[in-house]
Amino acid sequence: MKKxxxxxxxxxxxxxxxxxxxxxxxxxWEKQRPMTPVELIEQAKTHHALLCTLTDRIDKDFxxxxxxxxxxxxxxxxxxxxxxxxxxxxxxxxxxTPDAMSEATxxxxxxxxxxxxxxxxxxHKTIINGQWGYFNPTGNLGVEIKNKTLGIFGLGRIGVxxxxxxxxxxxxxxxxxxxxxxxxxxKLLDATYVEFDDLLAQSDVLSVHCALTPKTKEIxxxxxxxxxxxxxxxxxxxxxxxxxxxxxxxxxxxxDIWGAGLDVTNPEPxxxxxxxxSMENVCILPHVGSGTMExxxxxxxxxxxxIIEFYKNGKVPHIVNPKVLGS
Length: 327
What we know:
- The structure is a single chain.
- The protein is of the alpha/beta class.
- The chain folds into two domains: about 5-100 and about 295-325, NAD(P)-binding Rossmann-like Domain (Rossmann fold); about 100-285, NAD(P)-binding Rossmann-like Domain (Rossmann fold).
- The chain contains 13 helices and twelve strands.
- The protein has a seven-stranded parallel β-sheet with strand order 8-7-6-9-10-11-12, with helices on both faces. A five-stranded parallel β-sheet has the order 2-1-3-4-5.
- α1 (about 15-20) packs parallel to α12 and α5 (about 100-115) packs across α7 (about 155-170).
- The protein is globular, with a radius of gyration of 21 Å.
- The chain starts with a strand and ends with a helix.
């Protein structure tokens, strides 16, 4: 019997072709909108496997009705949309796509840092609004980041690549905070491990690259922003709920920090009247960290290979809950 794979979005063809080559029966969601949670459940009920992404809600209610699934493969490096505990309890392996988007996301973090430092988004708007006037030697000044201190919260694959860019381009000193020390990265980057409060206090640019967990949810909040330098730039390209957005807004208005660059917001999507969008020291993108042809194609391939290898030899190359394969 052909295995039936539900494909929840129009993913890049690179991975879809691999699945087609293996003669799976694919059900593609063709509409120009995501499935609702009810639609996702109803579709998944008649399939053996699911290829999904971060905005698909794979929660306890989903598993209550789709406990029969044999594998879930996530088109993303994050997986906080999936109830991993319940999936593991049901013996369902969950695949993901680590490292495929590391270069692309590090580029976005690096670009946002420069854009915030020089108020690029705000100054672009002045042209659109017909406000490009005379030369003002003291108007709309940015800051330079050469020789400053970069703080990384989550020195993993993406954090290392961001740190390399900053060190090579601007000779920045690297400090970081992780759950566990990254000795290899310390040696590679001459990076220094610091406690979280020291990361807040010492960073000129603080860039977030951690996973969203109960421990990291809204860890960047009012009390934390107060501990940062008034000249500091906050960058988040990881997950929106890692920062408390109202507190971030207040911190910039109050001058507790200098500015922020966000590729992720809390909540998403951000409303167009959000006050952060009108601040001159803030640059915001609509969660496009992995948005290159190279990254998305590789993500598609990795997500497909998780399914293919599972059905061919019982292995999932990139798996969140490996113990289910050993049971």
